[in-house]
C-alpha cells in the first residue's frame, strides 16, 4: 500500500468517519489511541458523536473538561483555602468553579461543527471525528480498515479522501 503514503499530513487534518453503531465508533477511537501510544499517529482530538433516537446528537469527548476543571479547581481552591485556614471550603468552591469553567470549555474540534457534520447520521449511528497531526498513513489506515466506515467529511484533498475511503472499504 505505498500509495497511501500520500495521506501523510504536515498540518492537522480533520477526518469524520461514520459507523453503524456507537460501539464500532468507540472501538475505532480506542484503536487510534492505541496507535498513538505506538507513535504511529498524533491526535489533536478524537470525539465520538452519536445520533440518538430523538434526533439529538450526543458527543463523547476524548477529554472530559468538566471533571478536569473540577479536579484542578479543587486543588487550587484547597491551596487558597490554606491561606485562609479553611482548605475544605476552598476546595469545594474551587471544584465548583472549576467544573463550571470546564463545562463551558471546548478543546479540540468545535462541538457545534461536530453536531452539524453529524446531522447526516441515521438514528443510533455514530461518527468518529478526529483531528490528526502526524501520521504513518500506511500502517494506520491498514489497521483501521478492520472497522470499515464511510468518510463523511475531511480536510484532505479529494484524491486523498478517495484513497482513504477505498482503504476503509477494503478495495
Automatic annotation (TrEMBL):
InterPro entries assigned to the protein according to its UniProt record, in alphabetical order: DUF1269_membrane
Out of the domains of life, which is the source?
Bacteria
Q: Which Pfam families match?
A: DUF1269
Record's protein name = Membrane protein
User: Which source organism?
Assistant: Xanthobacter flavus
